[in-house]
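Lecture 7, part B: from sequences to assemblies.

Below are the input chains for today's worked example.
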Amino acid sequence: MDPSLPALERTDHSHTRAGRPRDRAARAAILQAANALLEENGIAGFGMEAVAARAGVGKSTIYRWWPSKGALAMAGFLAATEPKISYPKDGDSALDALRRQLLRVAEVYAGPTGRVMAAILAEGQRDPHTITAFVEGYARPRRDEARTILQAAITQGELRPDLDPEVVLDALYGPIYYRMLVPVGPLDIKWMDTLVQTVLDGIALPRL
Amino acid sequence: MDPSLPALERTDHSHTRAGRPRDRAARAAILQAANALLEENGIAGFGMEAVAARAGVGKSTIYRWWPSKGALAMAGFLAATEPKISYPKDGDSALDALRRQLLRVAEVYAGPTGRVMAAILAEGQRDPHTITAFVEGYARPRRDEARTILQAAITQGELRPDLDPEVVLDALYGPIYYRMLVPVGPLDIKWMDTLVQTVLDGIALPRL
DNA sequence: TACTTACGATACAAAAAGTATCGAAATAGG
DNA sequence: CCTATTTCGATACTTTTTGTATCGTAAGTA
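Predicted structure of the full complex, as structure tokens:
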């Protein structure tokens, strides 16, 4: 972690210092309000005043915890989404685990969570801190997780040994982000299933 | 075209009606200024006042041509980008044409054009008119063009006959948009070349 | 009890999108 | 040439939103 980058959340000194402790309940209410507003209206209906009003909280309390709108959006997104997209821990084949996780990701991103993510990526194009927070705090860890499964699948002889894992991750996950941000077609399980199968088999004529 | 959707550009009646004709030179200057600002600073440095100042034009003139900030960004992008990404017209094999066009797209999107597109997609998450204009005025036509080549490659026996063209397009172009919007890695020709080859061959172990 | 910090509320400053108004300029038709 | 019409650039204005500052109060610690 580069300490020159602004933290996603401000540090909490409530236990070390004297004075009134910071209100964890208010923090939770803010996160929930932020995520709810993002889910309902995307980035359009998401403003600091609206979040404060919905959480029953002063605006200053929000800025005491998070430094900017983008940071708050990221925090709300993480709090709500992180539990939803974990890899299955079964003793399955790695390839099956990868496939099932991809279907799950497509399913989740097709719903409100996808709208929130699109909003964060949009905000990220405007504010470098937000996109950095998204990559470091969400995308990269997920990608690392996926790469591990991918390499396991290669080791177990389920996938070609000569693959570039980064490129394979892009081929599998890139189209999801694409359909999430550019409405060229639906993002559903049937589509995702076809995509996975297509990438698995390749598009070239099989050599007889 | 659904006429209920706001047009990307307002109609020009300067030749039919009386009065001072609309200034095409001013229009061109605005488009150029808009695109330059987007290339230089992305969505951050892109504002109507800034465009007007740079083009040496009143703000009202901009709004006389385009109804909103998003529409202007789209127009500037189209004017500058449309010539850059045409399909090669050679008598090559369809597959080679497709591959060369993908490499060209990756090359172009890796530069300033990619920053402009990212800005437009970001604005599009906020303003439905903008994303619609982008899809209808840019993404969809490109996609149609690519699909034609793709189907030619299938017809010519260069690709599997059982493919879903939409899914293949997502697999090839989706990762480009992904890397353009989420900085997980570089977007260069070497990467693109590996991606194309990976999708062609598939990632599963070849059946011996 | 004194001190310290966070709380909610609210006023405020700054920036930007889009609208309204103005006199000047350019064109068509008479 | 003259008048009506429309666009021109300039500028003031309204509205919205982000982020800061201020203030009296609440809730802890020493």
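Note for the exam: Chain B is about 65% helix and 0% strand. Keep this in mind when comparing with the next example.
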